[in-house]
Amino acid sequence: MNSTAKAGAGSVTAPMPGIIVEVTCKVGDKVKAGQEVVTLEAMKMQNPLPAPVDGEVKSIHVKSGDSVAVGQVLVDIG
Description:
The chain has 78 residues and is mainly β. Helices cover 0% and strands 47% of the residues. The chain has no helices and eight strands. It has a four-stranded antiparallel β-sheet, with no helix packed on it. Strands 5-4-2-7 form a four-stranded antiparallel β-sheet, with no helix packed on it. The protein is globular and about 30 Å long.
């Protein structure tokens, strides 16, 4: 897991600090823009985070239970 990955156009980033509840994709999966790829819990609410672009999941930087900071890259899609 890499907490220092740089965000790109296909990066899913944490919009707020929280805990990763679920990663709903795996490396190599084909995803569509808007498809949920991560669920983030913040302030006792579960927030589905969508893929920003159509593409293939290139890397996943988090797992369930991880604490994340604002702007941290969670998933890269290319």
